[in-house]
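**Reference record**
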Amino acid sequence: MLKLAIIRQSYRPDGGAEKIISRLLDGLRRRADVQVSIITQKWQKNILSDSVSILQVARKGWFRSSRFKYFINGVNRVLHTTHFDLVQSHERVPGCQIYRAGDGVHAEWLRIKISREGILGRLFSFFSLFHRVMLRAESKLFHHPNLEVVICISQRGKRDVLHHYPTIDPSKITCIYNGIDIDNYHPQFNVINDPVRVKLDFSPDTPVAIFVGSGFTRKGLDDLLEALVFAVDWQLLVIGKDKKQNRFIEKSRKLGVNNRVHFLGVQTQVQDFYSAADLLIHPAWYEPFGNVVLEAMAMGRGVLVSSNCGASELVEEGINGYVFDTGDSKQLANLLDKCKDRTLLKSLGSNARRTAEQYPISRMVDELLAVYQTLLTENFDENEK
């Protein structure tokens, strides 16, 4: 039996990485003889099967930077006292064998963030202890001799790693796209008299877009609100949360689009809201992949995706969606105007579903198992020498 450790600092019910870990665990349980342990500070036990154990490390520190440093120390203590065949980290923890870069490259996100901020924001980012801790951990991770494989979740992610850390051996980096539960996200859940549309008093012909994600700034909600000024026929559902949500509500008022923007919070049954929408918009400034893109596609919804989103690699222009230049709200507005066509929306949605069907969870699990098998074989051969 393979003893696999998965490292993730904490569980967020609306987190993309957490969804992928849950899907991975379910797939491993069905497909392989694997004993999984999650090393974490906080996790939701009721989403795990009995075959998964939780190794909890203490949560210490008042600030994000100190909590992360304590987490790294706690993980290292667990790894020194417990044997695992493979250690796969979903956090920037130096010393792991496999690093799944699901959160992308922090150095690249910081570069983009600073380029979009004003003077005060740039100063804050530059002197932020959290960013310095993350950059230091990321650098140590990519230069650590224990690191054998880096799993990027898009080709863009691979390019970002090689750009910021050019000394890493490119042969260590592989790309495995995220998978989606194509049965749980399915057009069969779309209904004509959708209860969400009825509750919000939308007419059947009203074009409705959906934005799904927490952390509205990085996800590009500012650009989307600005696009709505020109895309006057569209309603927008905002699913997710942000501690500065009031800023976005106020911005929608100032732009005069507040009567068409509906902030609905985090939703556990997000399929109901995909069903209510005609189109997903994911205008992220930085997004290593974007699970919501595959979710919407699986629900039979076309997508408008920024060029900085890894999942844009799955978009065929005019077939299952469109890719627009990150931050270009006018281009996004023009695409929304084009997508008012019901015939086009139906075609985009049907093709999007066919795209999603190419990326089931089983595909992701098979590709991960192949990585595990290669590592185990190489390590066995090395020990035999």
Q: What stands out?
A: Residues 187-356 form a domain with the Rossmann fold fold (CATH 3.40.50.2000). The two ends are 23 Å apart (CA to CA).
